[in-house]
Amino acid sequence: MSRILFSHAKVIAFDKHFLQFNNLACETAGGNVIFATDEWFAPASNLLKVLEPPEFIASAFTEYGKWMDGWETRRKRIPGHDWCIIQLGVPGIIHGLDVDTSFFTGNYSPSASVQAACLDEAPALTLEGDRTGMAASDSQFEAVAKLHSESWEELVPVTELKPGYSDTCHNYFPINYPSRVTHLRLNMYPDGGIARLKVYGVGQKDWSALPTQDQLDLVALVNGGVCLGYSDAHFGHPRNMIGLGRSANMGDGWETARRLDRPKNLQVDGKGILQVPGYEWAVLRLGHPGVISQIEIDTNHFKGNFPDSCKIEACHLTPEEEGKYVSGRWSSDPGNKWRVLLQPQKAHHRHFYSCDSLALSGPVSHVRLVIAPDGGVSRLRLWGRPTSTRHSSKL
Ligand SMILES: NC(=O)NC(NC(N)=O)C(=O)[O-]
Description:
Residues 30-202, 224-386 form the Allantoicase domain. The chain is mainly β. Helix content is 6%, strand content 36%. The protein contains 3 helices and 24 strands. The protein has helices at residues 7-11, 138-149, 319-325, and strands spanning 22-23, 32-36, 61-62, 65-66, 71-72, 82-100, 111-117, 153-160, 170-174, 181-189, 193-194, 196-203, 216-217, 226-230, 254-255, 280-298, 309-315, 326-327, 329-330, 339-346, 350-354, 364-372, 376-377, 379-386. The radius of gyration is 22 Å and the shape is globular. Allantoate ion (1AL) is lined by residues 41, 65-66, 68, 72, 75, 107.
């Protein structure tokens, strides 16, 4: 068993279990701000940054005022309030939000609300972050007016926010809204600044539209994959492994701390695998149960800190069994249900494993990536064919 079995559970209260899900709106998932009423001091696109935590640079000023790392509008001197529309990179079910006001202290938005819509036919609209907040052309204006007239459901009612000091900056909102969402409207009352908006949830794909013979990455963020638990995520969360494309840098991968129990003098076995007592693990739920035929494990960017070896176990849980082991997060382990999918392998660059290297040919719903003794993995891809069995709609 790993050194810290449920480290996340220790630091995160149950009502914030959503924090381990994917950020469906971040820029690396393809999230985009398509309209903002005002971006005088700082553009709304900053809300979706994920590779850089918010920062404050005391000496940074622009011709518009103090440089701020977030979305910041003018002090309003006309009726109304400021709002922006965010197109999620991955449409899905939202389980929680973090409205992060980091470093906005005398200028944070005193209240905010969040609305949601499912607009699969939304007009393609990207406004440059101009500083007037006005749509630049008639067609853009019409597109914004159309978005404005759609019916938006209230996810978070108008709520007072806390200022952006280090101990108050996170404004967490658990969300219980069962429908698929493609767009959010973030409202600031009446004006001010917000550093980041994190939209935690699970992607939802229309599996009925997929020809059954198609192979696709069943654990990908865009296909509804999600990390449910892990032993350690000191430097990077395992959910990063299922993101789009190859990773941007080391921050865009799963990276654990160095294990403290590694022996003072390391030894290897006959296959060159290090003899170490401990390992780290991450459990991921596939977007759809399926038969895996190809695996990619990529340690890109982890050059002095790739794992020595990795293996993958898998299981096939029925919706009832999943309900037993997963209640919002991975709360107990299905021990004897794990089967080896990929035997221990050295892991130090981009590896592809096809059918003949895989030890399982039946359907799987969850996988556990085990790395020894510790280190970083940037991407995990599990190509396969979805089966007719489905996950439970609840997570
Ligand atoms: N010092 C400030 O931040 N002032 C103003 N904001 C910026 N970004 O300059 C403001 O009052 O809203």
